Amino acid sequence: MDIATRVYNHQWKIDPIVRSLIDTDFYKLLMCQSVLRNHPTTQVTFSLINRTTEVPLARLIDEGELREQLDHVRTLSLTRGESTWMRGNTFYGKRQMFTPSFMEWFENLRLPPYHLDRVGDQYELTFEGAWPEVMLWEIPALAVLMELRSRATLRDMGRFELEVLYARAMTRVWDKALALRDLPGLKLADFGTRRRHSFLWQDWCVQAMVEGLGEAFVGTSNCLIAKNRDLEAIGTNAHELPMVYAALAKDDDALAAAPYQVLADWQEEHSGNLRIILPDTYGTEGFLANAPDWLAGWTGIRVDSGDLVEGAETAIRWWQERGEDPREKMVIFSDGLDVDEITRLHGLFADRVRVSFGWGTLLTNDFRGLAGDDLAPFSLVCKAVAAEGKSTVKLSDNPAKAMGPEDEVKRYKRVFGVGDQRVREVVV
Amino acid sequence: MDIATRVYNHQWKIDPIVRSLIDTDFYKLLMCQSVLRNHPTTQVTFSLINRTTEVPLARLIDEGELREQLDHVRTLSLTRGESTWMRGNTFYGKRQMFTPSFMEWFENLRLPPYHLDRVGDQYELTFEGAWPEVMLWEIPALAVLMELRSRATLRDMGRFELEVLYARAMTRVWDKALALRDLPGLKLADFGTRRRHSFLWQDWCVQAMVEGLGEAFVGTSNCLIAKNRDLEAIGTNAHELPMVYAALAKDDDALAAAPYQVLADWQEEHSGNLRIILPDTYGTEGFLANAPDWLAGWTGIRVDSGDLVEGAETAIRWWQERGEDPREKMVIFSDGLDVDEITRLHGLFADRVRVSFGWGTLLTNDFRGLAGDDLAPFSLVCKAVAAEGKSTVKLSDNPAKAMGPEDEVKRYKRVFGVGDQRVREVVV
């Protein structure tokens, strides 16, 4: 029987990295449904940006291999079983989270073309077209680049050297579980799809957390793994919504209103634990100060940049000012987390709010120091850079994560009343 | 095809620990051939002794399971492929190391009955009968006990907990290889069969050393692994020869001569690197002082107890006194070795003699601290305790390893001129 497997494997042209359209973050699908309803024809451009320029992706990764992987992603379509899972499952306790009309559209989707150029030691990889289609390239594009870079490093290693590499990485992940398992009332989810070491590795890490953390591990943002391992799919919404809404704004007043319009649209579709505010796109402080009262009624807030303690304290003060009880509110931390930071934040806030953690890169790609630094995670993103021909802007609570043309950044800062910000190193 | 494997596995009554008569140390087979030639009908008793009485084997290991494993060993006979390997292979550069008459005997061998009793928290496990048959129980009996104890500890662990346990152990073994790989001219062999964590684990450790140490790893004492992995089988002779020869001695003069008679018999069969003296059975110093001159012409010496540096220095002095050049002599260290000790001894002696290492328990069973101490190796031996009704005696260079009835120990000390000895902790 090994013969059959071996012969079957002979026939592979490539070992595909992304093998399913739902090997993506749950919130991409939620946002996609929202975008398809509210902005089905908006033209956008997504672009891959390697913030860690010291990692020379174009020297490490063969262009032909990269094209083969991206071409393979374009052959994918939703399988019957995947469709059944999305239609039949409950998400956040709700049936039919995805409407029949969205599902029909999704079942017929193939991802649109990509544009790939080599510029120096980096790749320029962009996607243009209708927002609901283009946006679904983000996660597979990142996963392909991340894993090809891993493979480039692993290629020259011996069999036992490889086994021990993974032994070390497994030990490290398990030690993290052991360090976290005794935090009372911990709630933690895997948010590590986009910068994972590889698909199989993410799948391993998630299963290790299921065994190691038990009830404290509430699920994964990866839909395929959630489906295969019978876990909760986790996620709400991301910066791309306010960024595109803002780029589409006709004038400064519309710009100032755009981030709230995003959430007004969102509120029409979602309730409960899906009503999570992501306030930092144009500065958390101003966003909350100018927010309409109905937003204070939402379930919680996601703190994704800047000083995480300050971000949570700002939210708590804001809820108190608006007459809400913070103890009933959820605070989800999701920026550069690892064991120490999770432990510290849990200690500071577990008694004051409902704390939860979206643990990303340092869960699914902590290979720091294991092959020198050739496998260390790096800061690769794939962002909406333009909508209907206008550049998007992100300010964030950390200027190191800001993006957009200089004059537009200046204008956004004025409109959103963002003053001086402290630069913080982007961990991953 | 997974179905067939699964269904095939359904049919196992047990998962056998020892699956081959050559899953044993090479020197047992060499000694067996010698014994079959010189003492084919000598009646001996071998007995299992747990020197680490804190490990309550009879509480950890179910008697029924132990019997099943031992019964399974008794069903084994030499396979055609194993016989072919023993007949056709070169060992230490020599063809037909095993004579046709020995091979014919071995092909027809089944291991003799065993006697098992529970005494308190320990098992009393003994084997009685003709020396060449009984002696082959030693390694399988130890391997069965060691691995059943491992299984008892592993039984309650989760799947990922298990995977991480082995990940940690693999990392540890690999780190040992990394620490040793740069020692110039290192020669090291696996001697870890008897106290291995499990067969599969020993097999993994050996393969990891092949990749990690390259030329420095010269082979394994385990014949089955040597055969399967196409490695050199390593080993010469052990204490059981002088112990039984000594027990058979009619008077004090014969006793004093017995250890040399062993080597005289050995010399008739073996040359070159198989002429290795094991001098410590009744004290190294006296053994060498009283040795006949022809012994100084042998290839080397194995230092297996006491202060290893002192043992090697004694040998070097002895060779010099007998007009031999120590730089042409081999010194094999084989007692309680681990990375630091190997590095230290290599540093002290590599320029002065041909150093070699027989690395045992801490290569194939270093699980110290990985499941508390429930998997830590312990000092289990299986020794010839009587021959033709007379107790055997071992003095060793470490009184903690001595054995035999008190009055006989006293007599041996007198005959071999052994004075005060320093007690050293038995590592494993």
From TrEMBL, chains A, B:
Gene Ontology MF annotations: glycosyltransferase activity; nicotinate phosphoribosyltransferase activity
Residues with Phosphohistidine modification: H239
Database matches in InterPro entries: N/Namide_PRibTrfase (IPR041525), NAPRTase_N (IPR040727), Nic_PRibTrfase (IPR006406), Nic_PRibTrfase-Fam (IPR007229)
EC annotation from Swiss-Prot or TrEMBL: 6.3.4.21
Keyword Ligase: yes
Stretches assigned to the Nicotinate phosphoribosyltransferase N-terminal domain: 22-145
Keyword Phosphoprotein among record annotations: yes
Protein origin, superkingdom: Bacteria
Reactions catalysed, as given in the entry: 5-phospho-alpha-D-ribose 1-diphosphate + nicotinate + ATP + H2O = nicotinate beta-D-ribonucleotide + ADP + phosphate + diphosphate
Keywords: Glycosyltransferase, Ligase, Phosphoprotein, Pyridine nucleotide biosynthesis, Transferase
Domain (Nicotinate/nicotinamide phosphoribosyltransferase) ranges: 187-419
Recorded metabolic or biological pathway in which this protein acts: Cofactor biosynthesis; NAD(+) biosynthesis; nicotinate D-ribonucleotide from nicotinate: step 1/1
Modification after translation, per record: Transiently phosphorylated on a His residue during the reaction cycle. Phosphorylation strongly increases the affinity for substrates and increases the rate of nicotinate D-ribonucleotide production. Dephosphorylation regenerates the low-affinity form of the enzyme, leading to product release.
Role according to the record: Catalyzes the synthesis of beta-nicotinate D-ribonucleotide from nicotinate and 5-phospho-D-ribose 1-phosphate at the expense of ATP.
Family: Belongs to the NAPRTase family.
Protein name: Nicotinate phosphoribosyltransferase
Organism listed in the record: Maritimibacter dapengensis
